[in-house]
């Protein structure tokens, strides 16, 4: 009976502790979603770690906008959700956790400009104190697009403690100024255990879905940003050196050598298709045209070498000019250091440098 009393006391204590813990105020301060009038949107709002970008059609009056936010439970926001503000310049919102112990600031921007057609990769910041993120600005120096990469997924492996060791990083000695360095990296013991032994360096127009990268990597690429022009070709400069040992699923393939890839896809968006991914990037019926570097062009080069790839229109398709004006066409441009990196095949140390890229239109 004495032991039974101790056991009952222990169980009751655990139950009471669980109840107390479940009633503790929430310590999170995040914006989970952002709602605006869908009639003005070019694409769904892009929510990142500390910023939200809302891409809208040119006729939008951004001086009087009132986005509505969904927050983590119990959190509050200032200015209040639904407040009418002038977004000629980005607005700063502060989210405070339910327990009042933590605050997080978000920069919220309404973006009318579409992406430019010249990319020199001079704009870069360090995200989360861990890795590089390249971005584009407009004539007012406002951020209008972040280039996406798989760096955030690589950060979970703990395989690098510096930005230089990530698959996508800045390179000081570009063709002109700074360039992008894409390197296929080992993901270490953790990545090998998960069946993802390498991470190819990549850079693309779109967004990276971290959750999908774990469960279904081909779905992790959300390819495409709205544009108001029809591309004819892509040109730029590259250097490339393949890594010494090619592997598939961690197994050495002595008769294979790694190579790189550049491709671009121009496509129409609708209610059923907001972006392409790794499963349909070349096959979806909404695709208007594709540009891809050829096997002959995929050479190793130690000096800066120029490339040009034209867009090929599929099935004699035509452009709906009104939809183009309304932002209903999107473009993705993708660079990778290992052409089969999305299936975790390639060679560690394969390195692709890219600079001075231009979309001809």
TrEMBL record:
UniProt xrefs under Pfam families? PCMD
Organism encoding this protein: Chryseobacterium turcicum
Matching entries from Gene3D superfamilies are given as: 2.60.40.2340, BT2081, beta-jelly-roll domain
Q: What is the lineage of its organism?
A: Bacteria, Pseudomonadati, Bacteroidota, Flavobacteriia, Flavobacteriales
Where in the numbering of this chain does the Putative carbohydrate metabolism domain appear? 120-360
State the protein's name. Answer: PCMD domain-containing protein
């Amino acid at each position: 009976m004495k032991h039974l009393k101790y056991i009952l006391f222990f169980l009751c204590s655990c139950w009471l502790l669980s109840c107390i813990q479940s009633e503790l105020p929430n310590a999170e301060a995040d914006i989970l979603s952002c709602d605006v009038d869908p009639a003005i949107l070019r694409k769904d709002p892009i929510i990142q770690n500390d910023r939200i970008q809302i891409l809208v059609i040119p006729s939008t009056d951004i001086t009087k906008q009132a986005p509505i936010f969904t927050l983590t439970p119990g959190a509050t926001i200032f200015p209040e959700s639904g407040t009418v503000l002038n977004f000629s310049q980005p607005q700063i919102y502060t989210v405070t956790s339910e327990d009042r112990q933590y605050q997080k600031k978000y920069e919220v921007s309404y973006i009318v400009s579409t992406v430019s057609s010249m990319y020199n990769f001079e704009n870069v910041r360090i995200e989360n104190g861990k890795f590089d993120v390249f971005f584009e600005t407009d004539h007012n120096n406002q951020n209008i697009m972040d280039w996406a990469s798989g760096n955030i997924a690589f950060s979970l492996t703990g395989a690098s403690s510096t930005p230089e060791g990530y698959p996508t990083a800045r390179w000081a000695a570009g063709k002109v100024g700074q360039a992008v360095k894409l390197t296929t990296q080992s993901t270490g013991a953790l990545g090998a255990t998960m069946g993802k032994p390498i991470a190819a360096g990549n850079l693309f127009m779109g967004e990276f879905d971290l959750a999908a990268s774990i469960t279904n990597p081909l779905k992790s690429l959300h390819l495409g940003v709205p544009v108001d022009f029809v591309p004819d070709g892509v040109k730029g400069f590259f250097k490339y050196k393949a890594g010494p040992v090619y592997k598939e699923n961690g197994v050495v393939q002595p008769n294979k050598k790694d190579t790189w890839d550049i491709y671009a896809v121009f496509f129409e968006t609708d209610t059923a298709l907001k972006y392409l991914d790794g499963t349909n990037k070349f096959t979806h019926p909404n695709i208007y045209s594709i540009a891809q570097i050829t096997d002959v062009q995929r050479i190793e080069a130690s000096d800066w070498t120029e490339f040009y790839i034209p867009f090929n229109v599929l099935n004699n398709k035509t452009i709906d000019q009104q939809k183009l004006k309304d932002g209903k066409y999107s473009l993705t441009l993708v660079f990778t250091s290992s052409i089969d990196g999305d299936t975790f095949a390639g060679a560690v140390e394969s390195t692709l440098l890219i600079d001075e890229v231009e979309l001809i239109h």
